[in-house]
Amino acid sequence: MPELPEVQTVVTQLGQKVVGKKIVDFWSGWPKKVMPGMREFREGVCGASIISAKRYGKHIVMELDNDFAIVVHLKMTGHFLYKTPKTKNDPIFTEDRVNGYIHHIFTFSDKTTLEFSDMRKFGWLALIKKGAVEELPAIQALGIDALSPRLTEDMFRTLLSARKTKVVGPVLLEQNLIAGIGNIYRSEALFLAGILPTRKILKITQVEFKELLRAVKKVLREAVRLQGTTDGDFRDLDGQPGRFKKALYVYRRTDEPCKKCGTIIKRAKMAQRSVFFCPTCQR
Questions:
Q1: Residue 40 to residues 24, 44, 68, 127, 135: CA-CA distances in angstroms?
Q2: Which of 21, 218, 259, 273 is catalytic?
Q3: What is the pLDDT of residues 92-145, one digit of tens each?
């Protein structure tokens, strides 16, 4: 599933490629994931221009120059592709299987398109009144964004300490606490901070809290810079996979040597999710 860096990559590219463009048509081959319905959605978007692209947790919000915004969740395998008349038949779009599951298409006045490919068909698009976007239950339930400058060391320690009897690994995935830390970056941040995912929060020192927050922000920012991690289906708007996979220290490196000390990387299950760690570098 795309996490914060992948969604931020999409939002940044939307800002570069489609903000300012006028939508002249919308097609869907999977209308059950278009809300509130195809007729209302088309009426709201056709003839409108996109004026901004934002991220709320893992939600993408494209504001229009009318009363509405398009809210999108990529879910497991969804991703947007931006095509021009010159690039639409490029091999990256026609030969990469992952880019071939097109279920929704926005067509712009300059004949470029924004297409939504989603193999599993779980992703959704919704037309929402601008003033109601932040009132959506899924967005209201989000905690502070992991990359927010408001997430200070004191706030981070306070939030995690509210779960002090729990182990840190699963708590970092609680989106109502801190939004944006997914499975990939949880394992990577704990490795950089030298903390085992099985450590109880009450056993984490003040210095370690500081190192963990620094690690969380560092790994997320670096992943954004490298346009995310492609762990299967994620592609950016140009149809390209993310480049952070080569920078991973522990995620999905079970039985491979640690890049720092050579110890074999281990994998464990915590709250039905896999977590990866080095038993030597992390304590």
A1: 15, 6, 11, 8, 20
A2: 273
A3: 999 999 999 999 999 999 999 999 999 999 999 999 999 999 999 999 999 999
